[in-house]
Amino acid sequence: MSLDPPFYQIILLTLDYHFLASTEPAPFLGQVWLDLAAIVLMLLMSAFFSASETAITAFDNFKLRGLIEHQGDPSGIYRLVLENRRRFITSLLVGNNLVNNFSAVLTSNLFAIWLGNAGLGIATAIITVFILIFGEITPKSLAILHNRAFFRLSVRPVFWLSQILTAIAIVPIFETITQKTIQIFQGKSDKNAHSGESLRDLHLMIKILGGKGTLDLYRHQLLNKALMLDQLIAKDVVKPRIDMTTISHESSLQQFIDLSLETGYSRIPVQGESKDQIVGIVNLKQALQKLQSVPKQRLSEIAVIEAMDAPIYIPETKRVTNLLKEMLQQRFHIVIVVDEYGGTVGLVTLEDILEELVGEIYDESDYPSVQESLVQRDP
């Protein structure tokens, strides 16, 4: 919540004083009561602009998306705030400064009529107090207390104000100058910094909801882990090369099936001369389908490379959230992680990523009794 400094008013009053000193003071609008009415109107408009500025600033994107989801956005104005909140704020600041400046000029003019040259100091004090109390502090405080109501009340008039100021190029000029100034002091925009701030806000929101009992313990932990997942890269969840189970490209499909039953893995990387040369991924389901059409006496002759798929390589710096999205969209379950020189770092499975979210996932291969029964059925 920012308060407009009174310094610009002092400058305006000083200029107005020099102007009035050389001419006979007269009501700016022809009648004293019209000037007084205009000052009251300017204060009301200042209050509206200040309250609207606070309401639109404080009504963050999370709240705004919730409002759109529950009440809709037939006119599309809410979505415009989401896309370009800065334009709304710029329009409000321009409007607020215009009405405050005009009220300062009117006040100095009236006090020059009533008190002569001595009226400048009194006019400065009075208009500053009135603007601070009725045009800044009070409306902004009310907008904070009733944020949602003030937002819904003000957003449409502010939209039309921004349309008018944009049409006459006032807002675009100020936006361009402001953006250039920000670039000078800040340099290139740090998107990671903004992302980090958003994550901290979400963490805080989850903590508050958890403390109020709105979220149960499981959902609270799940949401926290989901946010933490965005900070992980493939290197953080990789199964190291030394722990990888692989099979030689010279092995048969029968040997692969035996290894699969022994380890419980349905997908196993196929290596060349070493684990640095992963040439494919063989799938138990595909291997069994391949062997169905092969005579029993030739089972040991079918090479594992005849049923393998091409491996998918990813850099160790790839974000886990992006990797999860790709694995779900493209329907693959295992990837090979490589370093900057192309050497094998390890592998990541879809199960590894999901376990970061929900904890340990147990399947049939994790239970010794089931694994033993599978081995016993091995022909």
Automatic annotation (TrEMBL):
Domain CNNM transmembrane, residue spans: 28-166
PANTHER family given in the database record: HEMOLYSIN-RELATED (PTHR22777), UPF0053 PROTEIN SLL0260 (PTHR22777:SF17)
Name this protein carries in UniProt: CBS domain containing protein
Residues of the CBS domain: 238-301, 307-364
Organism: Rippkaea orientalis (strain PCC 8801 / RF-1) (Cyanothece sp. (strain PCC 8801))
Keyword Transmembrane helix: yes
Residues of the signal peptide: none
Alphabetized CDD domains for the sequence: CBS_pair_CorC_HlyC_assoc
Protein's membrane topology: Multi-pass membrane protein
Regions that span the bilayer: 36-59, 88-106, 112-134, 155-174
Record key words, sorted: CBS domain, Membrane, Repeat, Transmembrane, Transmembrane helix
Compartment(s) where it occurs, according to its Swiss-Prot or TrEMBL record: Membrane
PROSITE patterns: CBS, CNNM
Gene Ontology, cellular component aspect: membrane
